[in-house]
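User: Structure tokens for both sequences below?

Assistant:
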Amino acid sequence: MSEAIEGAVLVVNAGSSSLKYQVLDPKTEEVIADGLAERIGEEASSIKHWYRGTEVRRELPLPDHEAAIAMVVDLFAEDGVDVAESGLAAVGHRVVHGGRSFFEPTLITERVRSEIERISSLAPLHNPANLTGIDAVTALLPDVPAVAVFDTAFFSHLPDESAHYALDADIATKYAIRRYGFHGTSHEYVSQRAAEFLARASSDVNQIVLHLGNGASASAVRGGVPIDTTMGMTPLEGLVMGTRTGDIDAGIVFHLARVADMSIEDIDVLFNKKSGLKGLCGENDFRAILERVEAGDDAAAKAYLVYLHRLRRYIGAYMIELGRVDAIVFTAGVGENAAPVRADSLAGLDRYGVVIDPERNAVRSDEPRLISTDDSPVAVLVVPTNEELAIARAAVTVTS
């Protein structure tokens, strides 16, 4: 047995043409290995593998996810680690949609796998890819317990008023149409870390969590329990995102079908992959957008203002919904690194007890930090998310 990763958890996040993985110790939080396989199924596949300070990159054909996992195992072997005999405590798989079937981390059995497949119609862009990763890892590591951790779990008990659409009740029930919420692993982890940072119990903190990345979502968390979130039945609803529309008038679907003769598939691709910031200005890298705004680019400036308008609207709505706000917390790639977004999204809220300190906001750090003034009634925090650690900890709770 290899002591190098004994007791650690392999966390897997499989996309349609990618495989992101990490090996970490859920107790010490040490990251032992990290990697990403990209363009799986294409001619120019590649894999990046980091192990205890040493990184290798390979350009090679990876026809499918099982081939990608096999290469990961081979790369570990080059590091002197036999993954199958290493004493891994578990494999934690990120699964986007749990529907109404899964509310907590779940040991993957054949029945569980079948149910994840059955509800894949709720997340056709994500769950099938997640299942591909589950199957590939299971084929090569059949004796390591596998656990599914669902993005929707944290929001599985939203109150009725925020969970339900004003749709025919029979149709909604028959086709499982309701608001599920996503990025739940991140929102749960960050809200708990924020309470810890404030030296308060989660049950005593009302907070707005802003997970701002290429995919973006916000949540209102009262006493550790989410009462609302921006994403709905799918990850398309809510904030303006890198390539997704966020909230949009459903009538636009009918209009495009009638006037532009677009198919449902065409509109799906348009809304999910060709809209959002990219649709507005041709760019979804926030660093590039901010550079263009600074340079006076009109399209980038409009995209930025549309993005901020939607974000501020939800911040305001959640302040009213919560009644008392103790903290506003920024996380994920944009939230953690884009100081202008943090400042602009909360500008003018001094009268509501939200006062950012410009010098604190300008500091870059990988640690949780306060960016509001000492006398701001509402604490404004930046808390780096760590979904891999959250998944690893969840997997261990199921298998130990």
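Moving on to the next sequence.
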Amino acid sequence: MSINPLEYQPGGDKKNSEFFDEYRMKICERRQSSGLEDLLVQMRAVVIQVEQGDALLYLHELYLMSPYRFSAAFKNKTHNVYVLTSQPDFPRLIMLEPLAKDYADEITMFNRLYPLSSQKPNARYIGEIFSTKDVVETQKTLESHNIRFNYHHETKNPFFTDSHFAFTFPSDFTYNRVGYTQVEIDDYDALQLGTPFELDASVVDSLNQVVQFAEDQKLSSLVLGLDHLATRILAGEREDAILEFLTMSNHYFWGAYNIASMNSSTNVTRNGYVDDDKKSPAKVFTANNTPSFVNSFENLPMPTEDFVRNYGRRLHHMAYEVLDGNHRGGEKNVDYVVKTLMQKGIPFLAHVVGECLDEPNLKQIFSKHSAYSILISEYVERCHGYEGFFTKSNVAALTEAAGKDERYEHGHVFD
């Protein structure tokens, strides 16, 4: 193990409670003593659901904006299940699409609670799937730690109960799930995802045109893989959400930084078993420093809290790493990628933030949220061997830009 969570000293300037520090250590100790640390390996997939009829549109968007490419498709009793692959060691992307326009389950219920997510009641990031050496023992161990798993009578979608995955019940703090499997992620027969089907020839031809564009414009070689996954949560649930994820995963708490200008903090967990975050992306948790009803006294910015109140607790963005280097004329790769995507009609928030001159640093940008997944795509280039995870100034600028785009007041959306 490259990082021992019992010895690692988290970085950052966000003060945590004594409760958090005590139970962070207790959780890591219990992971080792219970055998969970030896069972869990790395993240093998991320799962996203879209509305009925949006899957092929989202496929095209992913082909243009990400390194993911179609591998297989299956149909179960309630959903089409699409599997996409980037690099063999990187997590797969599994997309769920309800078969019926009026499909409704617990995900629909969560989304309908909030004014902006209710517009796409089935579109949601679901969670991650980790590989484990023994899925039965993993579930047994976690249930002894009071982690609740999904059973047949609790959900309509057989993907969560009939395939060879064991999924937790949606978290009270993030509404995300965590899945586990001991089956090789590309062994579709063993996973039992449903009845396989092929994409129509016209769809394949259209996707191949996007692939050709991405290769011609060098996007395929510049956008590498998932760097991190960022969830937004309520101010008072920050520490609980992080501790819960540490309980369910083999990540360690890397550190937390106060983004004072945005009245929020960014909290990072990473997998200490991989030599590249793209093999098991970091999970980031962002929360307001003060809840909205207290902030009403100070009237500080609160884009993170506003997002949660408008969309619910959920994943906010998926970040892709861009290859460090220069394109033609000395242009940084991330600037070139963004310019190329903008020419194809992809909208972005503000501009690329950060400087990459002669010193190690990073440049980042947010896209506008997808019309199909409700997720923002981030592109991040770590320049000149930059070893830090982020800079506070970049996070502040990105948070501000997203906040302006996600405003909702008195029944109106403000751009």
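User: Anything stand out in the second?

Assistant: The two ends are 46 Å apart (CA to CA).
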